Amino acid sequence: EPFPIMYNPVTGMVTAVNNTFKARRSMMLVVKTYDMAGKENLLTQVFADIGPTTSKRYFSIKNEIDKVAANEGVFLSLQLLDEEKKPITENLYWIADRSGNYSGLQKMKQSDLVVKARWTQAGMVEVTLENGENNPPAFFNRISLVDAGTQSRLLPVFYSDNYVTVLPGNKKTITINCKNIGGKSNSAIAINGWNTGQRLIT
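Structure (tokenized):
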């Protein structure tokens, strides 16, 4: 990945790595948490720079995360935005409670995730997952291209992303490259998520 942003759960340090040869200036670093119901909490929003081919530690948020995660755990969202507030890079963590358990995940309500799929060209499918603003996070959704009749996975297929969590008011787009399965016409998209159930999109 050319520009990952990471959280160290031991030190609480937020770090970015610039694997490109271009310096990035005037970025906005946005750190938010979401509870199991989807309530957003902005921890910090600051300007950030980083030089080429380097890593940079920005600050520790360990005390804040320990506090908000204590009872049920919490989702931690890290984003670096460009000057037009478009994401350059982002990462999402689910943080355990004070006992080291993911107790809040067991209590999450169902999220009414809206899923749409369309063929963009021969052998390419675009899947869009959209979560409403008042929903809980749609956690750990696995996308599979399957045979519509048997529901067995079709291979070889390549996904731009997978096992994705969609935060409230957010949208994720996944591209599926299935050019090597011989143009199978009776294919479908299977979705299986922690709190979004199972469904088949044909």
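Residues 157 and 178 are 5 Å apart (CA to CA). DSSP finds one helix and 15 strands in the chain.
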